[in-house]
Amino acid sequence: MTSKDVNHGFGIYGPDGSLVSQVQAMPGYVNRLPVTFKVPGHYTLRCLEYCGIAHAAMQGEFDVR
């Protein structure tokens, strides 16, 4: 995980809404986030650190089967 612009907090939320894991994404540095998903379901990704005007739009999702 890295960033081209500013610091970002990268959070993965589980199907029940709880925070599963998180890591900082920082310019010029690579952080690794090994995660094993044991619970199937719909997961959400969110930026955890205010990073600018588009901060609220920085989210994604994926499914684990």
Keywords:
0% helix; mainly beta; 65 residues
Strands, helices and their partners?
Blueprint: E1 8-13, E2 19-25, E3 41-47, E4 59-64
Antiparallel strand pairs: 1-2, 1-3, 3-4
Concise summary:
This protein has 65 residues and is an all-beta fold. Helix content is 0%, strand content 40%.
Folded structure, characterized:
The protein is mainly beta. It has one domain (8-64). It has no helices and four strands. It has a four-stranded antiparallel sheet with strand order 2-1-3-4, with no helix packed on it. A hairpin with a 5-residue loop joins strand 1 and strand 2 (19-25). The model has no long low-confidence stretch (mean pLDDT 94).
Bin the strand percentage.
35-45%
Q: What class, by secondary structure content?
A: mainly beta
Percent helix, as a range, is: under 10%
Count of discrete domains: 1
Q: Kindly state the number of beta strands.
A: 4
